[in-house]
Amino acid sequence: MAGPTAHHRPEKDARAKKVVPFLNRAPFWICAAALGALLVCTGARFAVETLAQLQERFDREPDGVKRAKILQKLGDAQFDAERSAAKSGDYSSVGLMMEKYRDNVRVAVETLKKTHADAERHSSGYKQLEMHVGKGLREVHDVILSVPEDYRPPMLLVEQDLKDLDLELLRLLFPRRPGEQPPPHSAASTLKKPGVAPEKQL
């Protein structure tokens, strides 16, 4: 006997079929929403990481290795700002940005030497910094070629300073390089001593 209950059962079954797939997909939507929120937060963090904030973080960091690693991001941001200034013809800002990069490298080198003196054994920070200085040298070389003549002398000084800093980093990383070892006998040891005949020259 088909009563009202039998009549409503197919409708309940139909609603259940609609609800169950939704429930099955619920974990997917929850995960998607969580991932979206994470991406928004991450994107906001990177958007906030401006050149000024990177510089502030670099200035506040007391550890040499961490400071050298911050310089990688800070230096790239400085290069971006320098290129934008060059496109607009603001060569004064180009020069100031490259000079600030040079000053930051100098500070990073000094901090590394104070907090992690043995670069040969503990090269972290030194290697990253040396690689970025190589990048900086290519950048300043391009600047020298592109700016008007009047703006080149300060950039030539920056280039030379970066070369000197790069050489210092290489010497700290590889102090035992052949060809740069001091001679075994100093010039003072070859001076004539009283009562001792000088060695015969070959």
Quick description:
This protein is mainly alpha-helical and 202 residues long. Helices cover 73% and strands 0% of the residues.
Describe the structure.
- With 202 residues, the chain is mostly helical.
- It has a domain at 51-173.
- 73% of the residues lie in helices and 0% in strands.
- The protein contains six helices and no strands.
- The chain is flat.
- The relative contact order is 0.08.
Q: How would a crystallographer describe the biggest sheet? A: none
Instruction: Please state the CA-atom Rg, rounded to the nearest Å.
Output: 32 Å
Provide the residue-averaged pLDDT.
80
Count of helix runs: 6
Identify low-pLDDT runs. 39-47, 186-194
Shape: flat
How large a portion of the residues is in β-strands, by DSSP E?
Answer: under 5%
What letter string, H or E per element, gives the SSE order? HHHHHH
The total of beta strands comes to: 0
Features:
single chain; 202 residues; mainly alpha; flat
How would the blueprint of this fold be written?
Blueprint: H1 4-48, H2 51-60, H3 64-87, H4 91-115, H5 126-146, H6 152-173
Helix pairs in contact: 2-3, 3-4, 3-5, 4-5, 4-6, 5-6
